[in-house]
User: Fold this.
Amino acid sequence: MWDRLAASDPGLLRLIAGLRTVAAIALTLMLLASLRFPVPQLVAGAMAAMAATFAVRETDRAKQAVTVALSLPVALASVSLGAVLNRWPLVSDISFLLIIFAAVYGRRFGERATGLGLIGFQVYFLSLFVRATPSMLPSLYIVITVAVGCSAFARFVLMPQTEAGTLDRLRQAFRARLGQLLGTLIELLDAGPDDVDKVVDDLRTATARLHETALMIQGRLERGTSDDATARLVQRRIADAEIAAERLGLMLLTARSAERTDTLTLHLPGAPVPPGRMLPVRDPATATMRRDLEALRLLVLRPVGETSGTALAQVRNRLLGYREEDNLPEASPAVQDVFRGIGEAARAVLGLRTALDGPQDESDDTPATSRSREELDAEDAAIEISEEPDAEKPEETGLRRPTTRAAIQVAVGASLAIVGGELLSHQRWYWAVLTCWIVFINTTSTGEILVKGGRRLLGTVLGVVAGIGLAGAVGHHTWTAFALVLVCVFAMFYTAPLSYTLMSFFVTAALGLLYTLLNTYSMSVLVLRVEETALGAACGVITAAVVLPVRTDRRTNELLVEVLDKLAGLTQAAVDQLSGRPHTDLVDQARELDQALADLHAATKPLTHPVTPLRSRRDTARYVVALLETCAYHGRALAATAELLPSNPTIAADPRLRGVCSRIVHNIEAIADHVRDPHSSAELETGPSIASMLEPGTLATPRWGRVTDRVLRHLQRLDEAVSGLARPLGVPVKVEAAKK
Assistant:
């Protein structure tokens, strides 16, 4: 059960965020209730505690403490401004717009400015919600001070969160998700013809989740480890395990297929497996394969304290023995490839355990296991820390700066929301402003804002229905209502990264309970909430489309070019190293490619949304992203193989590889040029297969003679995937090369 929880919530980040916020609110309510504050002040305290908790996003505890300390004067100034200016609506509205502009513009100054701007906005909104007046300020000062103090107590005492602890939980999540992926492979081995589509879909999901966790670990390594060498060691071992698991999945798909499986099978969501291709594995070694997959899963999931023992060592030794050609069982070539994949995955798991848990018991090692350990030790010793600073992108200025553009857009949209909201209600117009504000958070294009506004509206409508039922059930039971509010707050934070619709649902359900506590609940109030939400979303979309718009196509094209540039750089660097040129840092380049691809995937969500009316465009976007994920997988695999060369004496560079990737890199650059400028004259080159471009010969080390074969397979698949991008992106193919 713990593994399932760790896998569903990597790092327990959502669980801790929800519990911490609930704890801060509960402490605030208990203290204020003990001081005999009235219910409206309790509501204000709960809202202030929630804002003070979720607004602080920094990861360093010292920086968090400074931001929390600064949040108190910011909150007191904001509530004072709101209470004093409430009597002059026009001045109050202008002040609110200035706060909104400053809060969004301040994002350019980092996480602290972002958090303080968010607190200033939320507390001003709080003053409008509770209809603060100057006479209420003394009590509101006490309420907000208590709320900020309780938030700090929950953050630093009740639920402290360190980078090292978060990274350790992310490692557990990676293991759990790796175990789930291996469990899915066992299901794939046993799946009947009617179940293959579902299992392959589960395999895609498990692979994507493992990759997501690897990216999360990558983002926290520098702050969560003791030194750079340890960070790079963990980074390499995580990458090795991820690639080995993905490769094993492809090998098993190939073993079940009538022909070699296209890599796209793992990366195109919802794509059905072609009928007649996926056949049961009919081989005498199938039972052994199932046993070894289960044993590999056991090695991954077994707790650290239970990894010793002769039986487990024998299992590990048997799996690592498959890396030796002589130990492979008698079977078809495709099935033997699966056993090789199991051996490579076992080696990756051994390296992962050594990196995360320290030295392992070596008393029962076989010669094959000892060789694997020697290879891992040599790789660890060869890790070098690059001292070269990262190249900084040129900073945009003026209206091209994202924060400036977003601040202007939000201010204009909020102005429209104020005008429209006043027409709907003179008392609760601020709900439209809040929605307009929220749809701009973490969005960069008009399409993203449209999708987010629609999800918020849907969640609000469903939340109104739930709020009606909860308000009727609670009646005038104050503490029951507060308890349900805490449940809704926890659910809101726990579901926020998963579904914006669910988050909006719980927000609106909690709102119905708050209105009940304030004795202002009515059916018309909740209906007005829906109307104001729709108005705010519409204002946000209209503003994003008219004022300094960033079209979804433009945004996705910029990110697509970035992905292609990083893919070309990684491919060239990996093949250069595989052909004998000096060692470079490939792991970081691979992760930069993965992060750029993740950004592109997020930006294309408006294009791939299920309700989009442009079906062909949706299918094209999905196909392009899937092809790029396939390219990234092969790029990671090339980088991982190349990283073995400097330290592993059993692998030799192959100079014949030096000239085989020029066409691939040229084609990637041609596609990038065409995306930048549709009128570009760049064309794709075609020609013979990658494997046929090598002259006959063998590697210097016979035992690893399959290394070049593996590299060639990755290059061939990469070449095919890059060529596949030409049609959906409209890149012309050079006719002369095609004829040859």
